[in-house]
Specification:
This protein has 2 domains: about 5-60; about 65-100, no CATH class. It is built from 4 helices and 2 strands; from the N terminus they run ααββαα. The chain has helices at about 5-25, 30-60, 80-90, 95-100, and strands spanning about 60-65, 70-75. The protein has a two-stranded antiparallel ribbon with strand order 1-2.
């Protein structure tokens, strides 16, 4: 499975943060067990955040007007009947304010 940008950014930030904090803890004479557990906790959090970003990105649907009038409708976690109704509303240019004027 390839790593997407949405997963890579929080994972990379968590990795960089974990390295910095691990180095800083070692510089202050903290024990190895504490450093390892801290670094693993930070990396785990980064992976969890990356996964949540990926899930959120997959749940969002965007419908735009094919006439280019600027109408956009975003849906997140909607039932299929609501999604169908919103898709129809977004793609029916005659119902948009720009088409009425």
């Amino acid at each position: 499975m390839a790593l997407t940008v949405r997963e890579a950014i929080p994972t990379g930030l968590a990795g960089a943060t974990a390295c910095y904090i691990g180095y800083d803890l070692a510089d202050h004479g903290v024990g190895v067990a504490v450093i390892v557990s801290t670094v693993l906790a930070i990396l785990s959090t980064g992976l969890s955040v990356g996964l949540r970003f990926q899930q959120a990105a997959n749940d969002v649907q965007l419908f735009t007007c094919p006439e280019g009038c600027g109408v956009e409708i975003r849906t997140t976690n909607q039932p299929s009947d609501s999604v169908a109704r919103l898709r129809e509303l977004a793609t029916d240019h005659s119902q948009h304010p720009a088409a009425r004027s």
